[in-house]
């Protein structure tokens, strides 16, 4: 009897709530779905502070699980936005699992979205249209991405069993007018065995490039993980994983990625292409017209994302088999970068370039009122011939050398940093050769004015050596050493490069080693860094070349860095140092045999005189 009463009590405790729940569900199921239109719109406005409209029908069901279907949904954009709407959805359907809902847990059985149109944009002044102002509290609009406050509940990503997105377009538009567009053919996700990750698959186009992406999404609250990422974008590919942590003072993003090939030229062309939809829209800042063709700046004045670097922390580890630029192809790239409290450190950065090895370390401290930039880089060995070939498509140089760069600067753009640079650049090149006709192409006509100046020249000219050093102070690069020695000519340079204005003020002078001609007219190098001009100037004074010939050489302070670079055995470094060593070197370096230089004169004096006449004519700008 007692046992029977006990079961009746238990049954009542279980059945009564179920009967009440069933009655409530039956009551809700009998309601007209149109009664939910106004509450849904009001709830959206309370949460976002934006107007929402549902222009299509609403369908609602409770069994076998709560189901809501809405058509033609629109959400207003921020008042300052470029479009009246931030979101448009043709059809939205969500089905919840009933039993977890009874225990306060949201688990989505199915989420179907058709043709979503989403616009994410910033105004260039710190505002973003995804920063909402809830009606209930009306807080000040945030001006930066913020982490979930410690005294509030973090957002929890609900469990999704099935996700389907058909069609759609996601646009990101920045305050400077640039735009990136993701067109989605299909996005699907499946998680049939919780708590397994949601497996995502996306197919579409990003800025016109065909794109596929697969990954496994997991996590909730303060930590999310995107694992087993496989991205194919145009000719580029990446695999790896990404994570997002929200428990610190700033979001922390970590990416560990690798790939076989990245086509940087293709990506840059796609990402900088003006979108068709925005081609007719004026931007806030129209680019200034160039002074004349070729006068464009080398260092961009576009502001760097300084403020963004202070809003997030993170780490990037990247390994690539090949990185293709517009002209150069890099191999075996290894990069490790960290961002903490606004300090970006990239070290190491290693890659193969033109058969040589390039390594660098970079720091950019955005936490300072005036961001501080520093870069140390070197290439050792550097195949000068292959590098020149990849840049120009010609194989007219065969030589190897070493290069180093150590600079610091300040500013919020590349142009500002260049205008404040401090440091030095050093280059030494060993013995090699260059195709004689290639010399003129290499420097836009400089060697036509300073070369052999013969009508009949050998196909190849021996390069004994080359050495260069620029000392940079407050954006002014002063040439302390510039020396090129060939079998026919010794060239020396001096002058300055104004990195702020990108103007050249250099002079290159020459000394002929062959006895048949002694004309050595200095050449002024003027113009800009993107458009240099070479002008022979018979009135200029060639100071450097005179010092080298008399054994004076360059300043000892300028020579130290070149010797440290491994140039103590380089002929040009020894020549530039002056003194007894220079005298010894002058007896060792290759110079054209007199017979080869005047052979034509021995066989046909008239031919040599004609050749010299043509060479002098070139100096005067006359045609052959």
Note down, in words, how this protein is organized.
With 624 residues, the protein is an alpha+beta fold. Among the domains are: 22-135 and 157-196, no CATH class; 421-619, no CATH class. The chain has a six-stranded mixed beta barrel. Strand 29 and strand 30 form a beta hairpin. Helix 14 (594-603) packs across helix 15. The protein is elongated, with a radius of gyration of 35 Å.
First and last CA, distance: 126 Å
Residue fraction in strands: 35-45%
Order of neighbouring strands in the sheet with most strands = 4-5-8-10-9-6
Tally the beta strands: 30
Low-confidence runs of at least 5 consecutive residues = 5-16, 138-152, 274-295, 440-455, 541-545, 548-552, 589-624
Average pLDDT reading: 76
Helix content: 10-25%
| Structural class by SSE content | alpha+beta
Q: Tell me the Rg in angstroms.
A: 35 Å
Largest sheet, if any?
Answer: 6 strands, mixed, barrel
Q: Estimate the global geometry from the Cα principal axes.
A: elongated
Number of helices: 15
Provide the descriptors you would attach to this structure in a database record.
alpha+beta; 22% helix; elongated; disordered C terminus
Helices and strands, with pairings:
Blueprint: H1 2-29, H2 37-48, E1 52-54, E2 58-61, E3 67-76, E4 85-96, H3 98-102, E5 107-114, E6 117-121, E7 159-160, E8 162-166, E9 169-173, E10 179-190, E11 198-206, E12 209-220, E13 223-233, E14 236-245, E15 252-263, H4 264-271, H5 306-309, E16 313-324, E17 329-340, E18 343-353, E19 356-365, E20 372-383, H6 384-392, E21 397-398, E22 400-410, H7 414-419, E23 422-429, E24 432-435, H8 436-442, H9 446-450, E25 460-473, E26 476-486, E27 489-498, E28 503-512, E29 523-527, E30 532-536, H10 543-549, H11 556-564, H12 571-577, H13 579-586, H14 594-603, H15 605-619
Parallel strand pairs: 5-7, 5-8, 6-9, 15-16
Antiparallel strand pairs: 1-3, 2-3, 3-4, 4-5, 4-6, 8-10, 9-10, 10-11, 11-12, 12-13, 13-14, 14-15, 16-17, 17-18, 18-19, 19-20, 20-22, 21-24, 22-23, 23-25, 24-25, 25-26, 26-27, 27-28, 28-29, 29-30
Helix pairs in contact: 12-13, 14-15
């Amino acid at each position: 009897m007692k046992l029977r009463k006990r079961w009746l009590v238990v049954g009542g405790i279980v059945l009564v709530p179920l009967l009440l729940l069933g009655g409530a569900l039956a009551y809700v199921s009998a309601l007209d779905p149109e009664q939910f239109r106004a509450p849904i719109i009001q709830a959206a406005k309370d949460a976002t502070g934006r107007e929402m409209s549902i222009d299509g029908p609403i369908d609602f069901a409770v069994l076998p699980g709560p189901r809501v279907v809405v058509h033609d949904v629109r959400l207003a954009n921020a008042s300052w936005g470029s479009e009246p709407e931030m979101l448009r959805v043709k059809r939205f359907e969500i089905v919840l699992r009933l039993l977890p809902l009874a225990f306060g847990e949201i688990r989505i059985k199915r989420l179907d979205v058709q043709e979503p149109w989403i616009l994410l944009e910033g105004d260039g002044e710190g505002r973003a249209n995804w920063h909402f102002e809830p009606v209930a509290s009306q807080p000040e609009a945030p001006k930066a991405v913020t982490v979930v406050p410690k005294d509030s509940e973090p957002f929890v990503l609900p469990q999704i069993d099935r996700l389907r997105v058909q069609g759609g377009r996601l646009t990101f538009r920045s305050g400077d007018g640039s735009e990136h567009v993701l067109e989605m053919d299909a996005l699907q996700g499946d998680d049939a065995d919780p708590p397994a990750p949601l497996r995502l698959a996306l197919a579409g186009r990003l800025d016109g490039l065909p794109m596929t992406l697969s990954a496994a999404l997991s996590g909730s609250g303060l930590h999310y993980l995107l694992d087993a990422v496989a991205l194919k974008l145009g000719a580029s590919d990446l695999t790896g994983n990404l994570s997002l942590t929200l428990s610190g003072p700033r979001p922390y993003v970590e990416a560990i990625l690798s790939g076989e090939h990245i086509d940087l030229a293709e990506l840059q062309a796609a990402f900088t292409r003006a979108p068709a939809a925005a081609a007719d829209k004026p931007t806030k800042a129209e680019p200034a017209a160039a002074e004349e063709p070729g006068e464009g700046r080398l260092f961009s004045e576009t502001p760097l994302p300084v403020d963004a670097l202070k809003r997030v922390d993170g780490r990037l580890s990247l390994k690539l088999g090949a990185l293709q630029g517009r002209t150069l192809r890099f191999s075996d790239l290894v990069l490790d970068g960290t961002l903490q409290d606004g300090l970006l450190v990239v070290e190491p950065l290693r890659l193969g370039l033109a058969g040589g090895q390039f390594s660098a370390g970079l720091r950019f401290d955005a936490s300072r009122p005036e961001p501080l930039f520093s870069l140390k880089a070197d290439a050792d060995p550097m195949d000068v011939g292959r590098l020149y070939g990849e840049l120009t498509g010609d194989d007219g140089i065969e030589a190897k050398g070493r290069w180093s760069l150590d600079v610091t600067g300040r500013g919020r753009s590349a142009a500002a940093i260049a205008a404040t640079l401090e440091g030095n650049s050093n280059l030494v090149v060993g013995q090699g050769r260059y195709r004689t006709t290639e010399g003129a192409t290499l420097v836009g006509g400089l060697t036509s004015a300073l070369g052999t100046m013969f009508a009949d020249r050998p196909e190849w000219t021996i390069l004994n050596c080359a050495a260069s050093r620029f000392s940079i102070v407050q954006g002014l690069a002063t040439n302390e050493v510039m020396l090129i020695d060939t079998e026919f000519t010794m060239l020396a340079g001096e002058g300055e490069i104004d990195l702020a204005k990108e103007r050249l003020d250099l002079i290159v002078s020459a000394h002929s080693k062959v006895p048949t001609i002694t004309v050595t007219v200095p050449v002024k190098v003027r113009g800009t860094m993107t458009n240099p001009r070479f002008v022979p100037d018979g009135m200029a004074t060639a100071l450097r070349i005179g010092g080298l010939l008399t054994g004076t050489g360059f300043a000892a302070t300028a020579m130290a860095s070149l010797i440290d670079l491994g140039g103590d055995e380089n002929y040009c470094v020894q020549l530039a140092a002056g003194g007894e060593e220079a005298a010894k070197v002058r007896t060792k370096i290759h110079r054209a045999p007199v017979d080869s230089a005047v052979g034509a004169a021995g066989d046909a004096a008239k031919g040599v005189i004609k050749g010299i006449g043509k060479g002098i004519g070139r100096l005067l700008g006359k045609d052959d």
